[in-house]
Amino acid sequence: MNALLPLMVAVLSGIGVALQPPTNATLSRASGSPLLAALISFAAGTLILLIAWAAVDRTSPATLKGLPAWAWFGGAYGAFFVAATAYAAPRLGLAQLLTIMIAMQLITALILDHFGLLALERTPVSASRIVGIMLVLGGAVLVRRG
C-alpha cells in the first residue's frame, strides 16, 4: 500500500473535522435545533456510506457477530460530537472549540494507549508525549485568551 495514502486520508479528515462544525451550525441556526442539524448530517453521511459500501466494499454484516458491547458505540460518540459542535461552534468560535476538542482527544488517546483500552496496543506514557500534550493544552489556553 502506498505509505502516502494514510497521511492524505488523515489530512483530508482533519479538514473535514474543521468544516463540519460550521456547516452543522448553519443547519442548527436555520432550524433552531442542533439535534435536527445532527440528524440531517448523519442522514447524509449514512446515505453516502451506504452507497460507498454497496459500490466498493460489500463486507457482510455477519462479520460483526460477537463484538464486545463497546464496539457498537462509535455512532453514539459521533452523534454527540456532531450535535455538540453544531451547538458550541457559534458560541465558542471554531478555533476555540477545535482546540479544546483536540486537547481532550489527545488526553483521552494518551490514557487509552497507556492502558491498552478498547483493543488498542499498549503504548506507555512517556515524557515527550506528556510535553506534547501540554503544548497543545497551552495552545488551547492561548486560543481561549484570544
From TrEMBL:
Which InterPro entries does the entry mention? YdcZ
Please spell out the taxonomic lineage of the organism that makes this protein: Bacteria, Pseudomonadati, Pseudomonadota, Alphaproteobacteria, Sphingomonadales
Name of this protein: Transporter family-2 protein
Would you say which domain of life the source belongs to? Bacteria
Keyword tRNA processing carried by entry: no
TM regions (residue ranges): 34-55, 67-88, 94-112, 124-143
Q: Which UniProt keywords apply?
A: Membrane, Transmembrane, Transmembrane helix
